[in-house]
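[Q] Does anyone have a clean structure-token version of this?
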Amino acid sequence: MRRLLLMRHAKAERPGPGQGDFGRVLAPRGRADAKTLGAYLARHRSIPDRAVISPAARTRETWARAAGAFEKTPPSSFEDRLYDAAPAAILDVIKQTPDSVNTLLVIGHNPGLQELAAMLVTSGDVDARERMGREFPTSALATISFAVETWSGLHARGGRLEHFLTPKWLKAAND
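[A] Here you go.
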């Protein structure tokens, strides 16, 4: 059994004059949301065995703030192929994950993450699948499980959507 956590970076500031997309940092709401996601993962014992993160400033900062909620920070790496990646490129990165990793977190960007999630999921909560198909906002987290022995065995329509959430939806559920 493998569990894949697909997380879109938290809300980022708009680029300033002369600043490119790659260097955008998190907005105040994004910093708070990233911490909320980390706390959610820790509370629900969904701490990844490994994290693979796009090297953009906003994804790095999302990881740093989310990982702050964990008792022990899991190993992580920054993967250039995840920046502005198409679903097939993201899947290639995932398939290269060592088999010793049971739960993998990928932090990246849209539209690639949303398209990959839609490509991988075939079952799970129908409402959550429909919501995920309509939107994959900043700080969205999709938890997908696979009944495969190795990461290289992942394939389209092979996953079950366990959860799809954002900090905003978590807050609304707790109010």
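[Q] Thanks! Anything notable?
[A] The longest helix spans residues 28-43.
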